[in-house]
Amino acid sequence: MMEKEQREFIAYDYKQVQTHPNKSSFMIDSYQNFGWTLDENAKPSYPSSGPSFKTVLRFKRDRKIMNKMELTRLQRNFEFCLKEIEHLEQSKTSKATMLSLIVGIVGTAFVAGSVFLITAQTPHIIFGIIMAVPGFLGWIIPYFLYKTEVAKRVEVIEPLIEEKQDEIYAICEKGNRLLE
To answer: What pLDDT score was predicted for residue 9?
Structure first.
């Protein structure tokens, strides 16, 4: 005669988080500080490719966890800090991209003007050559402009990102203390 093992009923909350595959370990470790555990019944999913190459992590947490409201508040702060870091990361290249595109478009306008001057009914070759020089410079300079602007922006942004990461670690530490 086999006796049935009696298990205690546990109701769970479930959460699904999308993240870049490089950050999945960080996310698993961080969410554990708010009472979440990786759901062993649902495996992480990895999309095959594409611009939104994200890993989907599935977590669960006991619904009757102590300090649930405070843990949820800390978790929201954590997620807000993550979004701020993502926004800061994107801002590293946004200004540089915009400036490079503007210079490239102006260079293209000069080249187009040069072509129109040379192919006009009465060709103006000298003026066409004079307009082609800034046009070609407008095609060459954006690369160097992009690199220097990104380097300048990284110097400004990196300390802000470090500050946000320190804030994240402090939030995770508070959450971990609430779980004890």
So the answer is: 80
Rounded to an integer, what distance in angstroms lies between the CA atom of residue 133 and that of residue 105? Answer: 14
- Which amino acid, 180? E
Nearest to 149 by CA among 104, 105, 98, 108: 98
Candidate from 99-103, 113-117, 176-180 with smallest mean pLDDT = 176-180
Q: What span, in angstroms and rounded, lies between the C-alpha atoms of 164 and 42?
A: 31
Question: Among positive and negative, which fits the CA dihedral 9, 13, 16, 17?
Answer: negative
Determine the 3-state secondary structure of 180 from DSSP. Answer: coil
Contacts (Cβ under 8 Å, ≥6 apart) of 105: 138
pLDDT tens column, 88-111: 999 999 999 999 999 999 999 999
Q: Where are the domains of the chain?
A: 12-70, 86-180
